[in-house]
Q: What sequence folds into this?
């Protein structure tokens, strides 16, 4: 492939580089946003020189906030000028960035540029399979877009580390590490498939609207000899079992069960299947079974998924809506991937109550776990301990 052909298959995404997100007086200003502006401008210039398609991903919200995530809808209405309202100065690109005729502008209303937009169709139609990502902010819109691109099997993804930013350098670095880990085939703990068990709690009237999600508690993820073992997984098994016991009256179980040849697996780890290999969580294998102590009972509902989020290309949302459920409680592994992707999709889908039980979820290290819990708290997710949840909520 020539250099020219390579660039024709590449797109530069510039995410949320708008006045309200970057300027000092912006109502949703990202602290690190202004500092990366020169690098974003330079990335755009390089893309133009190479003939790379530039996609400007922006938010443009309804003045009354009717298309905004539920957790920040209070910023709109009653005479308030909410962030990035369509047609406002705050929604315009920050000074130094200009949309040109050959560029493409994509409006989104949630974190990921792929969520309920036509971005994937646009990229497929243009023959693009390589993405370069810039903008703000790393733990939310950048990361959600990247994980959705991984789930959609884009073979080449690059995040320019000094042209993306978060509220603090520590948050930025932690999220960059997590994104690197889902593209690194040698880092077993984080290049993971993440199954899910989801159990509905119906102990009292308010629990008729609550579901407990138990994520990735399968043998291949928890046992010492598991193909994709999560280091912190074994330690939380007792708390996950306890949470299930609290929520036992109704249940949905969501798990990964892959094709033996890996034809339904993310592209970046498809090499783990084929040539006689028994890949992780292959349907019917011991590795796909729930870890000891967790059992599917009559009345549970099993939902199989093949990507990080329990909502991605599954009918989970329809199942929950049909059951009148609007409150989610989440446990399992691992925090930076399936836990987080499921949580952010739930927030994007406007579930009014989302809780992650901090001592019934785990990651490869305590530091990775804590950094991701912090990011989820920042989008309105509650993070009780098992004791707090079972005693105060149950």
A:
């Amino acid at each position: 492939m020539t250099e020219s052909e390579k660039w024709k298959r590449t797109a530069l995404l510039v995410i949320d580089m708008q006045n309200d997100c970057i300027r000092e007086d912006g109502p949703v200003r990202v602290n690190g946003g202004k500092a990366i502006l020169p690098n974003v401008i330079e990335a755009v210039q390089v893309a133009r020189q190479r003939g790379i398609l530039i996609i400007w991903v922006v938010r443009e919200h309804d003045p009354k906030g009717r298309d905004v995530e539920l957790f920040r809808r209070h910023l709109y209405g009653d005479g308030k000028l909410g962030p990035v309202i369509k047609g406002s100065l705050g929604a315009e690109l920050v000074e130094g960035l200009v949309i040109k005729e050959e560029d493409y502008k994509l409006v989104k209303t949630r974190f990921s540029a792929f969520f309920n937009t036509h971005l994937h169709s646009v990229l497929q139609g243009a023959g693009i399979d390589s993405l370069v990502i810039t903008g703000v902010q790393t733990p939310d819109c950048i990361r959600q877009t990247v994980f959705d691109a991984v789930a959609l099997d884009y073979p080449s993804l690059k995040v320019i580390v000094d042209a993306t930013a978060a509220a603090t350098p520590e948050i930025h670095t932690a999220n960059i590490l997590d994104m690197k880990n889902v593209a690194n085939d040698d880092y077993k703990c984080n290049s993971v498939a993440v199954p899910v068990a989801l159990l509905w709690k119906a102990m009292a009237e308010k629990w008729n609207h609550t579901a407990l999600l138990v994520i990735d508690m399968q043998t291949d993820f928890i046992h010492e000899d598991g193909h994709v073992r999560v280091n912190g997984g074994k330690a939380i098994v007792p708390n996950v079992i306890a949470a299930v016991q609290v929520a036992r009256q109704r249940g949905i179980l969501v798990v990964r069960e892959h094709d033996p040849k890996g034809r339904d697996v993310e592209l970046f780890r498809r090499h783990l299947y084929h040539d006689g290999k028994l890949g992780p969580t292959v349907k019917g294998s011991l590795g796909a079974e729930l870890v000891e102590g967790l059992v599917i009972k009559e009345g549970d509902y099993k939902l199989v998924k093949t990507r990080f989020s329990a909502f991605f290309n599954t009918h989970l949302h329809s199942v929950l809506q049909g059951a009148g459920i609007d409150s989610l409680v989440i446990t399992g592994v691992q925090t930076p991937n399936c836990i987080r992707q499921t949580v952010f999709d739930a927030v994007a889908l406007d579930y009014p109550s989302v809780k992650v039980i901090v001592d019934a979820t785990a990651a490869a290290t305590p530091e990775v776990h804590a950094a991701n819990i912090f990011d989820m708290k920042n989008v309105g997710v509650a993070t009780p301990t098992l004791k707090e949840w079972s005693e105060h909520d149950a």
